[in-house]
Design goal:
CATH superfamily: Gcn5-related N-acetyltransferase (GNAT)
Distance between the termini: 36 Å
Strand order of the largest sheet: 1-2-3-4-5-7-6
Order of helices and strands: EHHEEEHEHEE
Structural class: alpha+beta
Helix content: 25-40%
CATH topology: Aminopeptidase
Largest sheet: 7 strands, mixed
Number of strands: 7
Number of domains: 1
Strand content: 25-35%
Shape: globular
Length: about 160
């Protein structure tokens, strides 16, 4: 029997999440510079989500980490706007509804933290993820918000919470 769990990240998850994130960039032929691939946070995900009003969740199947997603304040922007960050999954769990479950977990955390809006950036290659965001009420923006450092991302979206 398959056992799935969404939980907060622990230090031992760092190398696994880093590999999952970086593998997706190669799989979808996305830019490696100006994206999460090159972020200084990516190898240190646990440490990078220990601040106030931020959290990173991982999803595991039978105690094997297969993806994650997080919420943080949107850097250099209004205090009541968060960013949905680094939501990536191994191919083995894609298309099974776990992205929607992770999304819901992150959005609930954002609401619990008191955020009023949630922003995200993505790449046009990630069509399935963008479709989920649209179905969950995100609208497209003409330009990026805040200062994420992800200048190679070409999709910017926001949602009222």
């Amino acid at each position: 029997m398959t056992d799935f769990l969404i939980r907060e990240i622990i230090p031992e998850d760092n190398p696994i999440i880093e590999r999952i994130i970086k593998d997706i960039f190669h799989e979808f032929k996305m830019p490696l510079v100006g994206t999460a691939y090159g972020d200084e946070e990516t190898p240190n995900m646990f440490e990078s989500y220990q601040g106030e009003k931020e959290v990173y969740f991982v999803i595991e199947e039978n105690r094997v980490v297969l993806g994650g997603g997080g919420i943080k304040p949107l850097r250099d922007f209004e205090d009541d706007v968060c960013e949905l960050q680094k939501m990536y999954f191994s191919p083995s769990i894609r298309g099974k509804g776990f992205g929607k479950k992770m999304f819901d977990e992150c959005i609930q955390a954002a609401k619990d933290f008191g955020y009023k809006k949630c922003y995200l950036e993505s790449a046009s290659q990630l069509k399935a993820a963008i479709h989920i965001y649209e179905k969950k009420g995100f609208i497209h923006l003409e330009k990026p918000l805040g200062n994420t450092g992800h200048y190679s991302c070409g999709v910017w979206m926001i949602k009222d919470l």
